[in-house]
Amino acid sequence: MGSGARHIFRLCVASLGDLFFPRECLVCGAKLDIGTRHLCPSCADDIPLTYFWSWEGNPAEQRLAGLAHVDSACSLFFYRRDSDYSRLIHQFKYGGDIRLGVWLSRKLAEQMVSCGRFGDVDAVVPVPLHPLKKFKRGFNQSDVIARELASALGARFEPRLIRRRRFTRTQTRAADRRSNMAGAFAVNEKALQRLQAAGMHRILLVDDVLTTGSTIAAAASVLPEDFRLSAATLACVE
Ligand SMILES: [Zn+2]
Fold first, then answer.
1. Which helix (H) or strand (E) holds 237?
2. Distance, CA 76 to ligand 1 centroid (Å)?
3. Among 17, 18, 48, which Cα is nearest to 34's?
4. Which end of the chain is more exposed for a tag (fewer CB within 10 A), N or C?
5. Residue 148 and residue 89: Cα distance in Å, rounded?
6. Rounded distance from Cα 44 to ligand 1 centre (Å)
């Protein structure tokens, strides 16, 4: 099954599940009314939003500034390990709740469209997952987010521009020691040429969580210097 078909299959399974299992708010556990998803109205109102979209020089941009040639960056909400809202990421990523991922991505997309700072993006590129992780998880969470953002921004969804390099065991240990992602990615030359031929050079890099910024920076480092890069993540670790 291709990744598109798998995506649709998962959405169908999720819809069937809703018919048979009553749903609860992921944050406070309250029973959800029919037609309400993921969060009860009160927890939905209290999502710790970052407002980075309307804030030039925001902490995400500051974090990336010294690491990569990324001009603007934003995240939907603050990720705090001890906060119940961290469940949103866990449920999406490890619980395979793609509908939740789509819902959160649309919230982020709405803000990115209305703030106008991301309106000129040509292509949206998810940070690729290591093939083994993707195989185990069945999907790359960044693909889900990037697809929604691309559709809202009227940009091309370009999941093949950057790929993970396959490390040998020794290289993986060396990368661990450096505790960064340097050298983890490579550019797909054909996809790059296609974008360049189409005059597309404004790229939005997408990941699920912004922590130190080293993953986005490593992905950005394989793209040409004359590309204009921005970044978006669902959550930002404070
Ligand atoms: Zn709630």
1. strand 228-237
2. 18
3. 18
4. N
5. 16
6. 7
- Ligand 1 centroid to residue 87 C-alpha, Å: 12
The model's pTM is: 0.87
Cβ pair 210, 77 in contact under 8 A? no
Q: Which amino acid is located at 111 in the chain? A: Q
The Å distance, Cα 20 to ligand 1 centre, comes to 21
Q: Tell how far the Cα of 29 is from the centroid of ligand 1, in angstroms.
A: 6
pLDDT of residue 177: 47
Which tokens sit at 115?
């703030």
Helix (H, G, I), strand (E, B) or coil at 120: coil
Domains of the chain, earliest start first: 47-237 (3.40.50)
Cβ pair 122, 155 in contact under 8 A: yes
Taking the centre of ligand 1 as the mean of its atom positions, its distance from the CA of residue 115, in whole angstroms, is 28
Query: Nearest 5°: CA angle at 91, between 88 and 95?
Result: 170
Q: State in Å: Cα 238 to ligand 1 middle.
A: 22
Strand, helix or coil at 57? coil
Question: Which amino acid is it at 115?
Answer: C
Contact (Cβ atoms closer than 8 angstroms) between residue 31 and residue 22: yes
Residues with CB under 5 A from ligand 1 (ion): 25, 27-28, 30, 40, 43
- Token pair, residue 106, equals 């649309």
